[in-house]
Amino acid sequence: MELKNILEAVLFSAQKPMSPKELQELFALTAEQTEEEIARALKKTKQEAIATALEELAGEHERAARSYRLVCVAGSWQFVSQPEFAPWIRTLVGQKQRPTRLSQPALETLAIIAYRQPITRAEIEQIRGVAVDGVMQTLLERDLVEQSGKAEVVGRPSLYSTTPEFLEYFGLRSLEEMPAADELRRIQVQKPESLVTADPGLATAPPEALAEADINQLTAAPTAAVSERENKG
Amino acid sequence: MELKNILEAVLFSAQKPMSPKELQELFALTAEQTEEEIARALKKTKQEAIATALEELAGEHERAARSYRLVCVAGSWQFVSQPEFAPWIRTLVGQKQRPTRLSQPALETLAIIAYRQPITRAEIEQIRGVAVDGVMQTLLERDLVEQSGKAEVVGRPSLYSTTPEFLEYFGLRSLEEMPAADELRRIQVQKPESLVTADPGLATAPPEALAEADINQLTAAPTAAVSERENKG
Amino acid sequence: MSEYKVKFEIFEGPLDLLLHLVKKEEVDIHQVNLTKIATQFIEYIDLMRVFDLDIAGEFLVMASTLMYIKSRELLPVEQQVVAEGEEEEEDPRWELIRRLVEYKKFKDAAAQLQERESAQEHIYPRLPGKPEFAADGPVPRAPVSVFDLVNAVNSILKRFTTQEARDVYEDKWTVGEKIESILTLIQTRPVLKFSELFVTATTRGEVIVTFLAMLELIRLRQMVIDQPEPFAEIEIRIAPPEMLAESATDAAAPIATENAENISPAATN
User: Fold this and answer.
1) What distance in Å separates residue B148's CA from the closest CA in chain A?
2) What distance in Å separates residue A32's CA from the closest CA in chain C?
3) Environment class of residue A6 by beta-carbon count within 10 Å: exposed (0-12), middle (13-18) or buried (19+)?
4) For testing the chain C interface, which of B1, B10, B90, B91 should be mutated: the one with the most C CBs within 10 Å?
5) N or C: which end of chain A has fewer CB within 10 A?
6) Do C206 and C159 touch, CB atoms closer than 8 A?
7) The CATH number, out of the four listed (3.10.20.740, 1.10.10.10, 3.90.226.10, 1.20.140.10), of the domain defined by the range A104-228
8) Residue of chain B nearest C124, judged by CA positions
9) For each successive 10 residues of chain C (269 residues), what is the average pLDDT?
């Protein structure tokens, strides 16, 4: 009997997602309550060992390609069904009690907070170009974002961050799992050396000049942009 | 997607064993509720076909030798964990029997509801002197209290009462068995003129049920309870 | 005017409208003819006026920025006024394009979040039925609440209702003495029934003092209380060794801070 098997059995029987920490506590508690050797041997299992075993286990289930998978959402692990079986499971368990879908402005605001957290309301408005009062209210009420501190600037405005509920709502394991995360993280926007003045009305420069003012320079870290260019060349 | 896969997904999500007949009914119901072709195609699946697919599926899981199996008991099918994992699952189930202990504010709020039910949130807040939103949320989520109606006053606020789970949680046979709390029943709740539901401060339990113990015994230090008694005597 | 029909969708702000106009031009954001876009943007604002729609302030601010860019570009470079010390002035075109590019990235990210949102609606976590165990092995014991305790002591107190409750003779017992006697008792018998603690009590006072002694011992984590099963009689036992070890750290807490939370540390045993 391996650690992996026991973890599988426990998550199979668990009524809620469990984190490596909770699983560790379960091992410790079980060791105290039983005479069984294996259980006692697992008393001091490390969280890292549990996390590794869970990853392996998830891989096994992925490869077995059954109708369910083992997934990690917001740091906790659980078995979930594959989406294509939703029609029958919906009939079985009834319509999910899921809150109404988020509006477009709410999603945009949430995306900005998710990638740029912690962030002030003013910074969000700067990016979206509109006021976000109502939308922020909704996001706060739904526990998708929270106040996470005060910015060290004049007026000490509130800083906002996403919550674990945000990860749960979107089925994300962690913030790192968000798409294109590195491109959208907080990075200095670099201005090209010189903005070539061209024909009137043309925004920046003719295509050949654009190679210099590449989109990478606009959003990614300068070094990344350079290596990217070198690879291409 | 084969019949087998769908049966697996359904049984993996089911909270109780299911017979081929119940599964057949589920297929028929799902076919009615969806536009999806596969679901509609399965509308008239025969019980024999379901039984055969289940046998096959059980064989697959047997060979996969995981920590759980698909088994048939008394004609109904379910996934069960292998017996050698019992020590951990027992701990898991045991832990869950009782979620985290109630906080002091939750206990106080619960005591107020128990003795003064049905009661509005505003009345509770008046007795406790603080907002009880978070605490009420906890009590509602844990099924210890429930909405039991609307007060016949302006705004028709919800009335709250304790649930059968409340009795179970505290090991009480009935509300009459609660330790009497004269003090608690006597507290006057001031209501706005227009909001009179009943005689202010009238307790729900008959006076003869009021015995020796009082609110101090429920929430405050035992020594305080004694000195209170001494003062009375 | 027919092309304006499609334009009356709801834009989330001036940047959203600008992006829409750029997209219609089918060019890269960096190559877009801002003068042309500026004209279309202002036409849109005018149209909103015609239809008497509320125009948010942000749209007007953007319109004036665009007008500025447009006017600047219409002037030959040598005629543009560059105030002294303003050579390094931010090119308004650059600033606007930077903002557009940034906004577009977040709009795309929002679209991806939206996809995940709807995908999540089709994913169901497994919610197993509770496994049941045969009578082998210990069934978790029911923890005892303060309600149970008070209730229990009440029923014992009832035994004395026939006597004169408001008696005047002084109590022979102190809490400290009762603690000693309970400790002695529990050394010889590791498990006691709740009612057994009170069999020797002769007055209400003694019942109360005994009860307080018991609460104190529980608070000091010298003893734990639980029930073999719901509704069964409460049992009292010596605390397990790890709890006794902990007790040293918080035994100094005054009894007045005691609350219901601490009365049933036995819960998890």
Assistant:
1) 22
2) 11
3) buried
4) B90
5) C
6) no
7) 1.10.10.10
8) B13
9) 48 85 81 83 82 75 85 68 55 83 89 90 84 45 61 62 48 78 80 79 76 78 74 75 53 33 33
